[in-house]
Specification:
- The protein is α+β, with helices and mostly antiparallel strands.
- Helix content is about 60%, strand content about 10%.
- The protein folds into two domains: about 5-395 and about 625-660, no CATH class; about 520-615.
- The protein has 20 helices and nine strands.
- A five-stranded antiparallel beta sheet has the order 2-3-4-5-6, with no helix packed on it. A four-stranded antiparallel beta sheet has the order 1-9-8-7, with no helix packed on it.
- α6 packs across α8 (about 165-195), α11 (about 270-295) packs antiparallel against α12 and α15 crosses α16.
- The protein starts with a helix and ends with a helix.
Length: about 650
């Protein structure tokens, strides 16, 4: 297979995307079923050609076709096959092709599971997905061709960026893009509803499982990226408020708000404007993240492009999709009815508070990310907005959410009883405070305010368990009956509890590692030892080693506690041969949910080397909690009421749409 076939496949895919986007919209407008019927086969054909292009590029990597510029820039003969495959999305052009492939996977899933949707509405949704594909296929064809030739063909390639040669990078971009692109489905549903004026809760019921799935994938992608940065970069931290990290975090915040808002709209026909706006905003922030990573405006360890012309193209895409969506929203917004009324103290009120905090938090992160760029553009002055700004502002915004979160599920719809909710939660609150004080004492203290952070994490965990406890009726019926009720609860109830519980566990991990971690930086020679977290870390020896495409100096450390051997840790400094680029491979050893983290610095005179040793108590809770949140999303999706394609109760507005389609 020649690379030119891949380029041809992309061109044919764009032509089919044009047909997919234009003809069904015209058919829905005129009531022409023949034109609407084009949507599904055009989407299927586009997916086939995009998959063909992706396969051709992957084959070029696997067979060392260095006549392809992109392959020569991101691979070499010594690169292991699994990293050669991951290198397909290891730089700008290939990552964009992966983005388009995943967009087509989501579209085909939508085509497969949308058979029960009204024909007119489904045609509009698939057409909007086609419009998105047109924009990005045009981008890759005209500005980011991954199949460009390099003649004469070099004998070897430049190698993949060494910091990307990590198992985490084989999973991080696909999962992240599954989340990014997944929000395009909710976006397409909202635009289709705005185009047709079908703004009742039916479209939300159809879009909710897709949103749930996208949110779960994005959570997984962020977790994988956080772990990769922690393990690979050797900085000792799990989150740096890097602009590209922020680019994925903002749509996650908006998507979380969208999930809660969609629940209120489905249950109570309220928050209609919120829901439509958040559906647009979540995908808009995903597009903005794409722009930030690929435009060249950011400097980051995982920013892909430095060509401003590409940024201008993406800026055009942003203007068309985001500007067009908000213009359509402004045109249709006056037709949106207020929906069901509710008291401020109610489950709806709690979810409104949740949405306010999450959207303001996303706006804060957005301002902190873009303000330095805007200031430099307008004045030429360069400033840096780093962790101190984000930690302070974001932490203050999250504080009320941590307290309010367990109360939401305890409040009734329409009008709740705050005192009654507190009576259900006072045991959880008391246990949380006791657990926080005990943990604070066991860890030998720290800032006193940390007790409240720990208590908030425990409160969320115990509150999630209390929700299941009261739903099952353990306080009212016999234990056997309560367990039967627990087993009979909807899976969405378990999914919600898992998501909240996981969030609490993550909060515990963040507060604990921030408060109790220790760092030791010292020069060490063989035979020397340092103390960290009650463990003795002894530097034994240095040795040279060689990998498939790198050389390294490895340091061996022995771990002990109270004279008892607790294992070993290897830490190394690598030099990748082709790029002559050094990396640090940290040595990490887990003890329960805590870790010893050993990183090598610069060599010193007389055989010494700078060694950084961190003790990170409960740090694994950060990722364990995030994985539990992700599991909650998938468990909710397994509820038949939320399962994609499951038959659902239809409202009057949907029946009218069906009659119009016929």
């Amino acid at each position: 297979m020649t690379p030119e076939l891949g380029q041809l496949a992309l061109i044919l895919a764009m032509l089919l995307a044009l047909a997919q986007s234009i003809l069904p919209l015209v058919g829905a407008w005129r009531g022409n079923r023949a034109l609407m019927a084009v949507a599904r086969p055009a989407a299927a054909g586009q997916a086939v050609f995009v998959a063909m292009a992706f396969g051709i590029l992957a084959w070029a990597f696997l067979r060392f076709d260095f006549s392809v510029q992109y392959v020569a820039d991101n691979s070499n003969l010594a690169l292991p096959w699994y990293y050669r495959f991951a290198a397909v999305w290891g730089a700008h052009e290939g990552s964009l092709l992966l983005w388009i492939l995943i967009l087509n996977l989501w579209t085909m899933a939508l085509v497969t599971f949308s058979q029960k949707l009204p024909e007119v509405f489904a045609s509009r949704v698939i057409a909007v997905m086609g419009l998105i594909a047109v924009g990005f296929l045009a981008f890759i064809i005209f500005t980011s061709n991954p199949f460009g030739r390099l003649l004469p063909m070099p004998g070897d390639g430049a190698d993949l960026n060494p910091v990307l040669q990590d198992p985490g990078m084989t999973m991080h971009p696909p999962m992240l893009y599954m989340g990014y692109v997944g929000f395009s489905v909710a976006f397409a549903f909202s635009i289709a509803a705005l185009l047709g004026g079908e703004l009742e809760q039916a479209w939300v019921r159809w879009a909710r499982p897709w949103t749930n799935l996208a949110w779960a994938f994005l959570t997984c992608g962020i977790v994988a990226g956080s772990w990769w940065a922690y393990a690979e970069l050797g900085w000792g931290g799990w989150w740096f408020w890097d602009p590209v990290e922020n680019a994925s975090f903002m749509p996650w915040l908006a998507g979380t708000a969208l999930l809660h808002s969609a629940l209120v709209m489905e249950k109570r026909e309220a928050l209609k404007i919120w829901t439509v706006l958040l559906a647009i905003l979540a995908f808009s922030l995903s597009l903005l993240g794409t722009f930030l990573v690929r435009s060249g405006v950011l400097t980051s360890v995982h920013a892909f492009a430095t060509d401003p012309s590409r940024g201008i193209f993406i800026l055009g895409i942003l203007t068309i999709f985001i500007g067009g969506a908000f213009t359509l929203f402004a045109f249709r917004a006056p037709a949106l009815k207020s929906g069901g009324l509710f008291a401020p103290i109610s489950r709806e009120g709690a979810l409104v508070l949740n949405n306010l905090i999450l959207t303001v938090s996303a706006a804060t992160v957005l301002v902190g990310t873009l303000y330095p760029l805007l200031l430099e553009t307008l004045t030429g002055d360069k400033i840096s907005v780093g962790p101190p700004f984000f930690n302070l502002t974001f932490g203050l915004l999250m504080a009320p959410l941590l307290i309010a979160l367990p109360f939401g599920p305890m409040l009734a719809w329409k009008r709740g009883d705050l005192l009654g909710a507190f009576q259900r939660l006072y045991v959880a609150a008391g246990l949380a405070l006791v657990a926080a004080v005990i943990l604070f004492y066991v860890q030998h203290g720290g800032p006193v305010l940390a007790v409240f952070g720990l208590a908030a994490g425990f409160f969320i965990v115990f509150g999630a368990l209390a929700d299941l406890w009261y739903r099952a009726g353990f306080n009212k019926v016999s234990t056997s009956v309560a367990f039967q009720r627990l087993a009979g609860l909807p899976r969405s109830a378990f999914g919600t509890a898992l998501a909240h519980l996981g969030f609490g566990v993550t909060v515990l991990g963040i507060v604990a590692v921030t408060t109790f971690e220790t760092e030791t930086v010292t020069e060490m020679k063989p035979g020397m030892a340092v103390e960290a977290g009650g463990y003795t870390v002894t530097f034994d020896r240095m040795m040279a080693a060689k990998g498939p495409n790198f050389t390294e100096d490895r340091a061996h450390f022995t771990l002990s506690k109270g004279g008892v051997d607790m294992g070993e840790v290897w830490s190394s400094k690598r030099l990748y041969t082709a790029r002559r680029m050094p990396t640090t491979e940290a040595g990490i050893r887990s003890f329960g949910t805590s870790q010893l983290y050993v990183s090598l610095g610069d060599p010193m005179a007389e055989g010494g080397i700078v060694v950084r040793v961190w003790w990170k108590p409960f740090i694994l809770c950060i990722w364990i909690g995030a994985l539990v949140m992700m599991a909650g999303g998938f468990v909710s999706l397994s509820d038949r009421r939320l399962r994609v394609g499951a038959p659902t109760r239809r409202t009057k507005s949907v029946k009218v749409a069906l009659e119009a389609a016929e």
